[in-house]
Design brief:
Order of helices and strands of chain A: EEEHEEEHHHEHEHEEHHEEEEEEEEEEE
Strand order of the largest sheet of chain A: 6-7-8-3-9-10
CATH superfamily of the largest domain in chain A: P-loop containing nucleotide triphosphate hydrolases
Strand content of chain A: 35-45%
Largest interface: A-B, 29 and 21 residues
Structural class of chain B: mainly alpha
Order of helices and strands of chain B: HHHHHEEHHHHHH
Number of strands of chain A: 21
Largest sheet of chain B: 2 strands, antiparallel
CATH class of the largest domain in chain A: Alpha Beta
Oligomer: heterodimer
CATH architecture of the largest domain in chain B: Orthogonal Bundle
Number of strands of chain B: 2
Distance between the termini of chain B: 50 Å
Chain lengths: 367, 296
């Protein structure tokens, strides 16, 4: 039996003239899921969202909402609602009128409209603002009204286009938690567009990382961070070190060779990489440690990578210290060491060192 | 050069300069306003002059206003002006709003040309437009056929040609004002309405139109004022026997200027001025709202 998804995109393409904004995107978004579209501006995430909403029609491919093909169905006939980036509250209507708008258009009986508006206002804790005009509210309040206006219609899917983008940092953090709690409470599928990776990682059940109209990876937050599928994802999400290498072997173990001639093991290699090819080794700064010459005794175990370098620079950032280390081939990498003990003797500048990490954390990616 | 005494002298000189500069600027301002408004003030004052003279003050009276009201021909021209302004404004407001929507929202072949043509009546001299219209009415056979109508108990005969003429220039003005408003409007508001299940008509009726209203009312007021004040186009497109107030005043002047003309002019001035002020108020108020909406 094939699963029916809340939203399914099959090979969707959107072209504006010669520009391909969305390039053969396929996504399956499950019912009740908090799904994020994450990418830099211009990556096609908003266009994808607008196609689901019906504001843009795909040039190719198909969009299904709860198994129903949407085709050229206009936005007002789709069982979804949107929270817009600038909220798009109607300035000439009161807060209550704004929230009632969707139900009025659907000819919901008057007393039911009244009851549900009151419920929606209570849900976002703004019951006393019912008769205000949107411009009399703060940014955070407007944001919550926009949310109430969409959710009151009990859509099958809620689309959110960078809804927290206009708020200041503190309020944004608070709203992230509130939004996630609300989503769990109402159980509606949320499709959330953001360029803020931290926001996506904290809130989402799954994330699709996009760039240049292409989906690079769809996965749960920790897999996106720990197992980036390619160079773009590794680079875009969090901080990472890229070391140029040459692939020596792929099985039984993945072995790569640095320009210095050092051969080290790696945990995973991107599909399509062949032995003898140039590639990059990607590894997060907090997965590595620094050893002194005297601590090393004989060759490392098969799953441990060790390379020689020299400490070039230290930056103390409280919980940890960022060590910039120059490898023998000149590549500079960053190693973050946790400051677990007080009064630990720091590394000295230009002191030679051995960088060590577990091969499982290192991923061989295409250049 | 930089001794303390010379520095003190310089400071005094600078102060004097600043003071003189301020004074002369104020004087200049007063003179400029006097140049603009003194003639109008004199016109208004002499409409209350208790004498036939329009240059020698002989005491206060409101006699001329009574004489004006009793003058059947003046009153008929007032009714003509009002009727013409109301009808042409109504038509021009609808046409101008639709044109603004079309030009702002849709792209079509030849849009730039249409766009430019819409500004034409605003730019070209009235006299050129008047003569074009006159030729058009003659050649097309529309002529000066009057529309016989009972307007609040007054029997009027307003030539269709004048109405068409006024609609022709008013439509442009309405379109320009409404379009400015439309360009400012946030289009996501319309998308939000559609997203909340409103069809095209409901979106227009419930969101677009209310948001455009200040522009539409502003445009209509402008059109109404222009129609009331117009002389040239009315004069050329009305044929014989039809007078609006400005045309009537022109006719009276040929027989010599009396304070009655001052009274009529003062009345026209008052009406036009209040309409302009109303239009500015409406537009500036809606402007504030925009600024707030955009989060500034």
């Amino acid at each position: 039996m094939t699963e029916t998804y809340a939203v399914e995109l099959q090979d969707v393409v959107k072209q504006f003239g010669d520009v391909v904004a969305v390039n053969h995107v396929s996504l399956q978004i499950r019912d009740g899921e908090f799904f994020s579209l994450l990418g830099p501006s211009g990556c096609g995430k908003t266009t994808t969202l607008r196609m689901i909403a019906g504001f843009e029609m795909p040039t190719g491919g198909a969009i299904y909402i709860h198994g129903e093909r949407q085709g050229y169905r206009p936005p007002n006939k789709r069982p979804i609602n949107t929270v817009f980036q600038n909220y798009a509250l109607f300035p000439h209507m009161t807060v209550a009128e704004n929230i009632a708008f969707g139900m009025e258009m659907q000819r919901t009986p008057k007393d039911e409209v009244k009851r549900r508006v009151a419920e929606a206002l209570a849900m976002v804790r703004l019951s006393n603002m019912a008769n205000r005009k949107p411009k009399q509210l703060s940014g955070g309040q407007q944001q919550r009204i926009a949310l109430a206006r969409a959710l009151v219609n009990r859509p099958k899917v809620l689309l959110l286009d960078e809804p927290l983008g206009a708020l200041d940092l503190k309020l944004r953090k608070a709203m992230q938690i509130e939004l996630k709690a609300l989503q769990e409470e109402v159980g509606i599928t949320f499709i959330y567009v953001t360029h803020d990776q931290e926001e996506a990682l904290t809130m989402s059940d799954r994330i699709a990382v996009m760039n240049n109209g292409i989906v690079h990876q769809v996965d749960v937050p920790d897999r996106i961070y720990e197992h980036p599928a390619d160079r773009f994802v590794a680079d875009f999400i969090g901080e990472t070190n890229f070391i140029p290498v040459k692939v020596v072997s792929l099985s039984p173990q993945i072995i790569v060779e640095l320009a210095s001639g050092e051969k080290i093991p790696a945990g995973w290699a991107e599909e399509g990489i062949a032995v003898g090819e140039n590639a990059i080794l990607s590894i997060r700064p907090e997965k590595m440690t620094l050893l002194e010459e005297k601590e090393v005794d004989g060759p490392p175990p098969a799953d441990i990578a060790r390379v020689r370098g020299a400490v070039r620079h230290l930056v103390y950032v409280g919980t940890d210290t960022r060590h910039t280390v120059a490898l023998q081939d000149g590549t500079e990498i960053v190693v973050r060491l946790q400051n677990s003990y007080i009064d630990e003797e720091p590394w000295e500048i230009d002191e030679s060192t051995i960088v060590e990490w577990n091969a499982a954390h290192a991923r061989v990616l295409k250049e | 050069m930089t001794t303390p005494s010379s520095a003190g002298y310089n400071a005094r000189r600078d102060r004097l300069r600043a003071k003189l500069g301020g004074w002369s600027l104020t004087t200049y301002g007063i003179l400029a306003f006097a140049f603009l408004y003194l003639p109008i003030l004199i016109l208004v004052i002499f409409s209350f002059n208790d004498s036939r003279s329009v240059s020698k003050w002989a005491g206060f009276t409101i006699d001329w206003y009574f004489k004006m009201i009793k003058d059947g021909q003046i009153m008929l021209s007032v009714w003509n002006s009002l009727f013409l302004a109301i009808v042409s404004t109504a038509i021009a407001t609808v046409l101008g709003t639709l044109a603004a929507m079309g030009l702002e929202r849709y792209s079509f072949r030849g849009k730039t040309a249409v766009d430019a043509m819409f500004y034409l009546p605003v730019i070209i001299p009235d006299i050129a437009m008047a003569i074009m219209l006159l030729l058009f009415f003659n050649m097309s056979g529309i002529g000066f056929t009057p529309w016989k109508v009972n307007f609040f108990g007054v029997k009027l005969a307003v030539p269709y040609s004048v109405i068409i003429g006024h609609v022709a220039f008013n439509t442009s003005f309405v379109a320009i004002v409404v379009r400015a408003r439309l360009a400012q409007m946030d289009r996501t508001l319309e998308e939000a309405a559609q997203d909340l299940y409103a069809n095209a008509w409901q979106t227009f009726r419930r969101v677009t139109l209310p948001m455009l209203m200040p522009g539409i009312v502003g445009g209509a007021l402008l059109a109404f004022t222009l129609s009331l004040d117009d002389f040239v186009i009315t004069f050329f497109t009305s044929g014989a026997g039809f007078n609006t107030l400005p045309v009537r005043v022109f006719g009276m002047i040929k027989k010599g200027v009396t304070p009655k003309i001052n009274a009529v002019s003062t009345l026209m001035l008052a009406v036009s001025l209040s309409l302009v002020i109303l239009s500015i108020l409406l537009r500036s108020r809606s402007g504030d709202e925009d600024a707030v909406q955009m989060g500034f």
